[in-house]
Amino acid sequence: MEDNYIRHNKAVYLTQYHIIWSPRYRRSLLVGPIKDRLEEIIRTVCDEKQATIKALEIMPDHVHIFVSFTYREPIFKLIKAMKGRSSNLLRKEFPDLLKMPTLWTRSFFVASIGQVSADTIKKYIENQWKK
Description:
131 residues; 3 helices; Alpha-Beta Plaits
């Protein structure tokens, strides 16, 4: 068995999450340079928050991310940082996005990975384009 556990001071943990969110009105606008820039922003935020991206797929109308994150902070803070920073920067860099009242919906999906293997989640995210 691969040892994925994170050791920190007096704790050993493995907290992994599958996160999905979409643009307002589920518009298919996450393509081309917007998609590339969004991926860059998400990776930067995760690096800053010390979250490990295990899989990331940006579809035209939604984002899938499989991430390992600390037990010491609620996952919604990471999601808020990714969505907030990306909305701010993308709307500044791509003025066409200003036509929408907000870039992202207020909602998101998050599931902790416990009953399902990490490989199952990775395959699901990687096979999004094959549907």
